[in-house]
User: Fold these one by one.
Assistant:
Number 1:
Amino acid sequence: MRPIPKIKLYGAEGCHKTQYYRLVLDKIGLPYDFLDVEANEAYAEELRGLYENRKLNFPTITIGKKKLRNPYREDLVKWINKLIPQQLEIQHDTTNQNYVLDINGEKAVVSYTLKNGKMYLVHSEVPYNLRGRGIGKELVIKTFEKLTAEGHKAVAVCSFVKAIKNRDPYWKDIIE
């Protein structure tokens, strides 16, 4: 598994909202650190350091450098999907000859054409506002994993797909 950003939940054991977020994060199945700011002064000081007003604004969830103060569940899931694309399932759209990673309704896509029993991976695209977060790399690796699991042979034509393939000795030997 590729590394994911560290998730921290700053809260208090007796806080019902903190317990709600613990349940949500447990259900999603991502590892996180629960930092009880009432039981541990170092955790409280760490949380104060996240806010200009230095208040104990909890519950607060951090995903890497992203800070979420008491988010709605939908917003938390949205940010997890954006910041941790590893957890998303890639879909194979055979009709349109695409592998698709749906990130909160926005589609990152690897397109292919079939020729002589092989998939030629001709194009990859990540929506503009999602670029620079590693989503393109995750998209290509998930595409490689899915197409090989489906028993396909592939040829990297797109320069980005080729670059991802060439950076990893494992894929370098599998994808032409």
Number 2:
Amino acid sequence: MDFYFGVDLLLRLKKHYESRLSLAIAKGFDRQYDRYHWLFIELQYRVSILRRTLALLDALPDFMCHQSEEQIFAIVIGYTTPWFSEDTLGKLPHDEDGSSPYFDNRNPYYADYQASLDRFQASYDFKQLATFYIDLVECLVLAVRMYFFIRERQFKPIDRESFADLVGIKAVLPAPA
């Protein structure tokens, strides 16, 4: 990667989805039997993920001062891992070789996320707390970005063609049929 993804992306997404959520509520999409109730639910879910992730990032420096590197990393990975489970995403499409195109290096969202995780090799200097924090922030941001991409493709898209611009990438994976 040529640059780091940071909290600014999460804040931009939060602002985007909060304004759309407010509009959905104003239009009555929050009523359970409204035709677009599904959109309200998805917007509410994304705003919730963004708010919780930003809260975790706010608390992370304090954790870093009082926890071991392994515990800190476990907190971050433990926070994001459930997002990618079959319980959360449902049955994902698979190629003929049995792998999901979402978790393949041809998917730029996955490639970026995996590159952020790959930094944490055995040789990583966890004692450099500033760098460790920046790398953890990027890891979380890229996890959110990938998770929203999968949700955008796996469920009803709420951003259609603007999603790639919204998260700072042009996706190369085709939409599922």
Number 3:
Amino acid sequence: MKKALSIIAVLALVAVLGVALVACVPSDPEKAAENLESKGYEVVAAKKGSSISGILSGMAMPEGCETMVTGVKDLLDGDMIVIYYFEEADDAKAFYEDIKADFDMADEEDKEGMKIGRNGKVVYTGSEEAVKAAG
């Protein structure tokens, strides 16, 4: 019985660590923006209905996106991130599946150093460095 409890405890710890490693981008857009700024990224955050979201809506703000945070450190090197905060998890999932399909079809060279992911209502795409900085 004691051995079984030890195994269960280890499995629980592994599960918690796995979730911590996957959830790199904060669920709070203000926290993500703050983290990026503290690491030297230029940040633009647009909320649905703001004047900047009107500009972005035609270019990049997908359907159902409530807030979008963009952080750029070095555009030429591709050190940037875009984080999409959706109102509904289903919208985030649909958007993630679309960009994941595009990402999977890209050349390996284009994907090098890039990362995309989804955590509930949050979808992000960017350089590995920027994803770490946002977290």
